[in-house]
Amino acid sequence: MSDPVTIIMIEDDEGHARLIERNIRRSGVNNEIVPFTNGTAAIDYLFGKDGTAAERKGHALLILLDLNLPDMTGIDILRRVKENKYLKSTPVVVLTTTDDSQEIKRCYELGCNVYITKPVNYESFANAIRQLGLFFSVIQVPPAV
Fold first, then answer.
1. In a domain, 24, yes or no
2. pTM of the predicted model, to two decimals?
3. What are the backbone angles phi and psi of residue 37, rounded to the nearest 5°?
4. Which structural domain range is residue 12 located in?
5. Per-residue model confidence as pLDDT tens digits over 67-111
6. pLDDT, tens digit, for every residue of 85-95?
7. Contacts of 132 (CB under 8 A, 6+ apart)
8. What is the CATH number of the domain that holds 52?
């Protein structure tokens, strides 16, 4: 049996973070949510003390990522996650106010799994999270190499 998926939420707007978490819970997903309000703290957590992310090896994660953070861009975080051998298979859901088609294309090119523009239709979001919850309950995340 694999470990339950930990949801990493990187969102600097406290109101959005509460709304996202409330809708995740309402959709029946009870996984641990580890919130971050800036990119630096999220990077420190994801990449660990030695900066390699080796301590995340074998841990099932899902990243909910805002692109507009106070200290760095979500693009920078997405790029670093997808370039890291231990984190590259981690699903990344971009949740942001940016609806620029070039930015969306760039996120998909860098490896994001889903791009959702805020304000989010929370019924659709809750449904997507519910489906992710079902997905997590039946799938095992492949171990990082």
1. yes
2. 0.85
3. -105, 0
4. 6-130
5. 999 999 999 999 999 999 999 999 999 988 888 999 999 999 999
6. 999 999 999 98
7. 29, 62
8. 3.40.50.2300
